[in-house]
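For homework, think about our next protein:
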Amino acid sequence: MINNRFFYQDGILHFKINSSQFLSFDFLEGNFFHRLQKVEQEILIKKAIGKHSNALKIFDATGGSLVDTFIFLRLGHEVVACEQSKILFMLVKDAVERAKKEYDFLEKLTFLNANSADVINRFSESDIFYFDPMFAGTKKKLKRSGVLQKITKVLEIEKLGDTSSCVFSDLRKKNYKKIIVKRPIKSEPLHHQINYQVKGKSVRYDVYKKH
């Protein structure tokens, strides 16, 4: 059973993927910690969000390891993040609880273990809906990132597929203020009626606005 694969080591919750691989998260040290200390350098994502006078309500439909969610929070916004994987949710939630002593902005985070399709209607008044889908055709990226490889294996264990493109398509038929989709720089957009794009060297943000 999946629950039998969880264990604590040095106060951090881990999940045993196989005999040689384990997955855990820690927001208090490492590259991610240093990235948060330099959030003013997150130019691309700030441009995608756009200028605003007040804190925004953001719905992150693809929570994952909460990397982008933390950036939104660090910028002063309020975020509801969804992660359908029970394993990822438990590991990330453990990391969030440990990180609360360092980051006051986590008080503005609502983290849900759910398929975003099942709950998104409850947050229809969000200022921004954010999607960062995991797509086929990113094998080179997966080879470079051990964490992404492990997350992919976790999703395979739980037999979960990426439903975010379907959630995005359904959302576009409804009223919304802004949708931001993070994409590999050379990949096809989820929909070609893009209002504007913010491009970096390896990723871009496709922005859709309705009203």
